[in-house]
Amino acid sequence: MTSRHDPVEIACETPANIRKAKARKMSRVAGSNEDLAAPTTFAPLGNPTFRSIWLATQVSSLGWLMQTVAISWLMATISTSDLMVALVQASSNLPAFILSVFAGVLADNYSRRRVMFAGRCLMVIASGMLTASVALGFVSPWMILGFSFLIASGGALNDPAWQASVGDMVHRRDVPAAVTLLSVGFNTVRTVGPALGGIVVASFGLLAAFAVTTLTYMVPLGTIWRCKWKVRSSPLPRESMKTAIYDGLRFTAMSSEIKAAIARGTLFGLASIAILALLPLVVRDHLGGGPLAYGTLMAGFGTGAVFAGLANSTFRRSLSQERLMRLSCVACAACSLSLALTSSIAVAAIALALGGAGWVTAWSGVGVSVQLASPRWVVGRTISIYYALIDGGIAAGSWVWGTVSQTYSLSWALEGSAGALLLVAAAGVLFPLRERRESEPDPLEEFDAPAVALNLKPRSGPIVVKVEYLIAERNLEAFLDLMRQRRHVHSRVGARNWTLQRNLQKPMQWTETFRTPTWTDYLRLNHRLTEVDKELDERIFQLHAGEEAPQMTLSIERPTSSARKPDQSILHLPRHRA
């Protein structure tokens, strides 16, 4: 298959380039010792771009929390259905489940700043429409859910690009602190946002709360328009939506760290969301309070979250991430059980502070795990997949606990949530969160492609890569172990149909084979390899027993059913990294 695109300019990689890469590695390793010094929680705020957008985001979050109180209370007053009240949380989280993967592809292939701006625009428009509807008196339960869905859709478009941009703005060593700051900032606002929302609703009415929220959504819109930050650009063309989604899903599926974080986050969201989804009903039915009491209890939840966020760096130094996750589940379970049994606002506030501490500790942990396990070329997609699944779990949990509350009782739903959280803590046996003290090394993105005899186009392909090795029997076990690692490395960055074959006539001869759909995909694969991946290549080459370096053959497949005689490009190269 060929395309009408211009030919690709290519040159040969030389041993000098390999030596330079080794020199760069030594320099990076020397500097990494400084990176290992644990930064303080507030260190990323020294970056003016991150600080400006982070602060603007807090203003927007303040408005969102006020709007959440207003929407939840409006739904509780116009609908007698417990399920409809719980579905407010579902409508706020379902868009991330549906749209996040596509938003992640946009974040990795286009300007993240522009993607963030588009998402913020949608939030302003949807919030303005909701305000106008309330002003005109056109409100119904399904209309409320619809506008809530649209506002959350803007957030689903913005959030993966914003999270992925954190690594573009701050130094790698500051990424854990920056991710924690995102939770700390939101939960700091949570201490005053719900209470402020309750005061505004009680004193000035729902319309005032919705109007103020719309104004707060405009603050990050202006900040993103004004701020710019440097993003490393790729010399290769953008991936198609289908290929980009496939690559993101494949990388996520092959990363045990990301899979464990997503699994635990999804289960935690499903089990713990009952605390927030059913809180309006707790206030109305168990505590006999109004919107001010609801806002005050939400503030208690946020207070616990803030204190836990500020202590997060200390927790991470003294406890493993898995132990922190288990403690978070236990704390949220205690909160949910207390809400089911108490009729005191004071006791409920204390329980919610404990639940808030567990909430922010859990989400900070799984969020940092996904960030640190994701190279820059795929971080938007891994974060979006993470968001899609955890928000799907939260939306499903809102529906499940709302249904249990309506069918049986509110107490049963909260007690069931507590039991489910204890099971999530025990799930660490199957899906333990792994420790990673520093970020995944960034791809080198420095690859000199081999010269070929044909005039290849970017979409020419499929490309077949074969590398032949001569391995002595004494080195066979070590070779096979390294090749298993090589298969994993190459498959997660784009290699397909990877196989390893042994010559029956010449048992010392082994052939590694894999394919890429196009020539551009072959180049992209090599651009994604990291310094550690190249190191693995060197270890394999050292086991090669031939006088000359391992020989690589590049071929292009052609269908035998073609009417015209197909071209076949075969190029033999010495000791070249595929």
Automatic annotation (TrEMBL):
Residues 552-563 have a biased composition (Polar residues). The chain crosses the membrane at residues 53-74, 94-110, 122-152, 195-219, 261-282, 294-315, 327-350, 356-373, 385-404, 410-431. The keyword Transport applies. SUPFAM superfamilies: MFS general substrate transporter. Residues 551-578 are annotated as: Disordered. Keywords: Cell membrane, Membrane, Transmembrane, Transmembrane helix, Transport. It is found in: Cell membrane. GO terms for cellular component: plasma membrane. It comes from the Bacteria. It is a multi-pass membrane protein. It holds the Pfam family MFS_3. This is MFS family permease. It comes from Mesorhizobium sangaii.
